[in-house]
Design brief:
12 strands, alpha+beta, single chain, binds adenosine-5'-diphosphate
């Protein structure tokens, strides 16, 4: 302000005063002199305003005008726009470098609008999808599931689909939201991984198949021997052998079941049957009462008339696994409650126990193969470590999921829901 005032006062006042004095002296009239001073000031301001106006047409060039308020304002504006220009240059350069790095990533990515219009794409994606220069992603892929995932407002959705380039290749497509209208789509070729998984599954299935017959024969012989041995030593040897061989047979059976569940296609609605869950529960509850370890209070709350829609054998297996676990992991004297309830078009199965409960960090791993909270439970429970993995896959095939509610020292509840069958029995 001080700078503006001094420049303004020095330049203008000096010129104006000289004009005023000259006019007053020549005309001998002080008022005319004052009028001349005012006119000079107005002319001066107008000239500066005009110069300022001319400068604003090209504000990135340094202002060339008379010193004064307008000149100071223009210089300041010029300086700040120069700084802003430098900053945006830096941002543009950094963005260009980032874009280049992104383009060089070995992963395939595409930035597209929700209508499939491609905004940016890297070479890997072009190659993997055989994308022509100007094309619409949705039109090019021609798979309604890809369109759904691109349009979906949910971020991180994943899909496995055939490649538009070669339908023998399987691609994993992942869509992330950039904003309401734009998505970044990540594509990964999972064909080699799938091949490896299939090889592993085939290997497991073959080896389990090969082991099943000899193990069944061994169990049969050992059980027969158990009844006929006459010496104490032989009886002890047979007893020692029978339990691990039986466990190994259960393991092989469970592995075969799991492989079959994983590799067979999901059943369609037409393949689903009426499942008489109350009868399944009745059969299983009679069987568990025969278990050596059963010394529990068994409560039931069953909607007798409700049937579910599913594959009866698989639902039987899921319920059997959950109820057997409740018995095996709940100490003698504990309480086990089985519920089969209906809510609208859905029915739910639940088994609650008063056992030790499970700490939260284990919950998400329970359905992994061979995962055990306590490894010493292998011998205690006699389980194979595959029970909950089997339940998970059965439920996946029924578009359902295993619900686990448990807290240490407070027991556990395992359950799932199924659609209610409206078909006539
Ligand atoms: P397992 O053959 O060991 O029972 P599962 O897959 O059926 O294998 O269960 C995995 C693990 O989950 C078990 O080893 C056990 O630690 C835990 N678990 C399952 N059911 C219960 C339960 N009702 N109460 C406490 N822990 C359980």
């Amino acid at each position: 302000m001080k700078e503006a005032f001094s420049t303004f006062s020095f330049n203008v006042l000096f010129v104006v005063l000289v004009i005023g004095v000259v006019v007053s002296f020549v005309l001998g009239d002080i008022f005319t002199g004052a009028l001349a001073v005012l006119s000079a000031i107005i002319v001066f301001i107008l000239v500066q305003l005009f110069q300022f106006y001319v400068w604003t047409k090209n504000p990135l060039s340094p202002p060339r005008m008379e010193s004064g308020l307008f000149q100071i304002a223009a210089s300041r504006l010029f300086l700040s726009s120069k700084n802003a220009r430098n900053r945006s240059r830096k941002i543009i350069n950094a963005t260009r470098a980032l874009k280049q790095r992104l383009k060089e990533l070995p992963e395939a990515w595409i930035v597209a609008t929700i209508d499939g219009q491609i905004i940016e794409v890297n070479d890997v994606a072009r190659d993997i999808l055989d994308l022509p220069a100007k094309t619409n992603l949705i039109d090019h892929w021609q798979d309604p599931r890809v369109e759904t995932i691109i349009r979906s407002p949910v971020t991180g959705e994943v899909l496995e689909v055939s490649s538009p380039k070669d339908n023998r290749s399987q691609l994993e497509v992942r869509s992330h939201l950039l904003d309401d209208d734009n998505r970044i789509i990540l594509v990964r070729d999972v064909t080699p991984l799938n091949r490896l998984l299939t090889t592993r599954q085939d290997f497991l299935a073959n080896i389990s198949h090969e082991l099943r017959s000899p193990l069944t024969v061994m169990v049969g012989y050992l059980e027969a021997l158990q009844d006929s041995v006459d010496t104490r030593d032989t009886e002890e040897i047979v007893d020692r052998l029978l339990s691990p061989v039986q466990r190994m047979r259960s393991l092989v059976e469970d592995l075969l079941t799991l492989t079959r569940l994983e590799s067979s296609p999901r059943p369609s609605m037409f393949e689903m049957d009426n499942v008489n869950v109350p009868k399944i529960i009745q059969t299983i509850s009679s069987e568990i009462k025969e278990l050596e370890r059963f010394d529990h209070v068994l409560e039931m709350s069953i909607d007798e008339g409700t049937r579910a829609l599913g594959i009866p054998g698989e639902i039987h297996s899921a319920i059997n696994n959950l109820v057997t676990n409740a018995v095996l992991y709940t100490p003698a004297g504990g309480e086990i409650t089985i519920r089969w309830l209906t809510a609208g078009n859905t029915c739910s199965f639940e088994v609650t126990d008063t056992g030790p409960g499970i700490a939260p960090e284990h919950l998400q791993h329970l359905t992994e193969r061979f995962y055990r909270v306590d490894s010493s439970s292998i011998t205690k429970s006699g389980g194979t470590g595959l029970g909950l993995a089997i339940v998970k896959h059965i439920l996946l095939r029924h578009e359902s999921a295993l619900m686990i509610n448990s807290a240490l020292g407070k027991g556990s509840t395992f359950g799932f829901t199924l659609p209610r069958s409206q078909r006539l029995i």
